[in-house]
Prior knowledge:
Order of helices and strands: EEHEEEEHEHHHEEEEEHEEHEHHEEEHEH
Structural class: alpha+beta
Radius of gyration: 21 Å
Shape: globular
Number of helices: 11
CATH class of the largest domain: Alpha Beta
CATH architecture of the largest domain: 2-Layer Sandwich
Oligomer: single chain
Helix content: 25-40%
Number of strands: 19
Number of domains: 3
Largest sheet: 8 strands, antiparallel
Amino acid sequence: MLDATIPATSASGAVTREPALEHLIERVVQARAARTPLRIHGAGTKDFYGNPPQGDPLDVRALRGVSAYEPTELVVTARAGTPLLELEALLAGQGQCLPFEPPRHGPGATLGGMVASGLSGPARPRVGSVRDHLLGASMLDGRGEVLSFGGQVIKNVAGYDVSRLLAGSLGILGVILEVSLKVLPLPHASTTLRFELDQAAALARLHAWMREPLALDASAWWDGTLVVRLRGAEPAVRAAAQRMGGETVESQAAEPFWNGLRDQSDEFFARAAALVAKGGALWRLSLPATAPPLKLDGETLVEWHGAQRWLATERPAHEVRAGAAAVGGHATLFRAIDKSAGTLAPLAAPLERIHRELKRAFDPDGIFNPGRLIAGL
């Protein structure tokens, strides 16, 4: 999928590579020979996520720009250093979007960081994740070789798509160079509703709505207030709003709210950041949507109709992880000064073995982002 860009073919027929890619290859080859770890770096907006970055910076921002965009095919291909804001502006000009609403965490956030972090925004329960929209990718492995996976079509039955392994890998497998993504049209209509409910009542209400054919797109509960977003065809949104009731939130207030939730710049996350600065932690809990409110000290924000819950707390890691595990979920240490407890909960032996085998296959000398995802990997 990169034949027209990385590498390119000259008029004489010889295969050439652009300077930005040649520079990255040279750095990787040198690092491998010297056994020097590399920290893959874009805008740095997600440096807080995962275990602390280690190694010499390997900046990928020179690899930027949209390589191919076919609005009628709902597919865009762009390089890893492309700013998300630029890509989303291009899509919006054609009435399209990245439907999973990737968190940006800052104006310079890049496409490569979006894929490497694997994070999705408020619409995740309805439209799917970053991984679900990733059609293909090109990466630079630990041997200095360019590998391509997947393609530029929505239906790809050529085998297991290795590109999806890159989503959420935090760069431990290689340098993401370019990705192809499925995009979707912007919603025709959108309405936001607000309800005054405690957490248990809000979860019960959400579970009931999920059993009905409603245009329920996103939800958030915090501090006694449940906010839901309806999206889709105008008649469907209007009918759902009438069925669900609640107080309608005007668009000039609703849009900043959802953007603040997406980019984690709203009041809850500001309060969580203040707690982290004092030695607390922000946890991301992935739970069954039907799980009851957890009996854990701290402040909670509920998203994804109950499946994602944020907990700002000073409680120790083992208590938080035990509480999530007790209801069939797991806890990720999202923001903290002290990350000695590890970002991820300890993996079962078979899963850890798979992670280590994949790391050896793509990065045999362990130079990329050492320990960023899992300590010792």
